[in-house]
Structures are given as structure tokens and as C-alpha cells.
Amino acid sequence: MFIIFPMAGKSERFRQKGYPTDKYRLPLGGLTVFEHAVISFKAYFEEYIFLFIHSDKNNTKNFIQEKCQSMGLKKIRVISLNENTRGQADTVYKGLELGKVSQTEAMTIFNIDTFRPYFIFPTSLDLKKIDGYLEVFEGTGPNWSYVRPQI
Fold first, then answer.
1. Measured between alpha carbons, how far is 76 from 81 in angstroms, rounded to an integer?
2. CATH number for the domain whose boundaries are 2-109
3. What is the H or E stretch that residue 4 is in?
4. CA dist., res. 138 & res. 27, Å (int)
């Protein structure tokens, strides 16, 4: 199983508000946003492969490797993209292609700015027997991706 974090965004909204660095590097309560997002999956640090797909800028690869080592992740892969992408789906697609990740691999994708403290996959699901797992929430505003099931 791969837990994938796309990190190729430009952090434009944050820069427009005056923040000088990428969103995932921002300090928050003694850790970075990156660390808060990744540590949500601490239950899987030894079992799953953590794949980080980032744009090749600002020494991001070293940042990722250092933070993962300090958190005790056992299995990480870091894919650097040399070009802009058209969004998270494109980032993941290109990263999987560059990383030669098989299409048969189980994977889940989470945002690098989403915090899910003590996250555990639902025990009612056998992740090996389903096509996918999509976690959603209800929200409003133009900054969210929406899923509307057809019943």
C-alpha cells in the first residue's frame, strides 16, 4: 500500500496573503504543516510506503527526507517533478509514472495540508478487495473539490 502526498502546488493563496514559504513548511504548534499531515498516519509508518511527489524547488527533497527520518518513517519514496502540473490528479499521475509504480498497487492519496490525527482506515473495509476508498466531508466554498454521488 502506498500513502501518497502530492506536493507540487505553488502555494499561491498563501503567498498572496504574505506567507514567504510553501504551505507545508509553515510552522504550526511546534511542528510544520508537513509533519502534522504525515504524522496523522503514524499507525502505518512501518507497514506502508509513503510516496511524496513534489516540484523540484527550494531543496524540497532534502526537507522531506529529513522530516521523515526525524518522524521515524520506515519506507519512503520521493519523486521530484521538473515541470508544473495541472493539479493534484496530474501530479499523482506523473509521479506514479516517474516512480514506475504499478497500476495494481493499492494506494490512497491525501493532501499535504490535511490533518487526520490518529487516522485508521475503516476496519469494516478489506482494502485489498475494493477499488478505492474516498474520504469526504461536507463543506462550502470555491476552494474545495466536491463529490456528489448519484443515487
1. 16
2. 3.90.550.10
3. strand 2-7
4. 27
Considering just the CA atoms, what is the radius of gyration of the chain in Å? 16
Evaluate whether 79 touches 52 at the Cβ level (below 8 Å). Answer: yes
Helix (H) or strand (E) holding 32: strand 31-32
Task: Output the pLDDT for position 106.
Answer: 84
pTM greater than 0.90 (yes/no): no
pLDDT of residue 144: 67
75 close to 1: Cβ distance less than 8 angstroms? no
Distance CA(90)–CA(101), nearest Å, equals: 15
List the chain domain ranges. Answer: 2-109
Please report the pLDDT score of residue 52 as a whole number.
Answer: 98
Element (H, E) at 34: helix 33-39
Rounded Cα distance, 135 and 65, in Å: 27
- Strand 2-7: give its sheet, edge to edge: 76-81, 49-55, 2-7, 107-109
- Cα separation, 107 vs 124, in Å, equals 18
- Sequence-distant (≥ 6) Cβ neighbours of residue 20 within 8 angstroms: none
Q: Is 104 exposed, middle or buried (0-12, 13-18, 19+ CB in 10 A)?
A: exposed
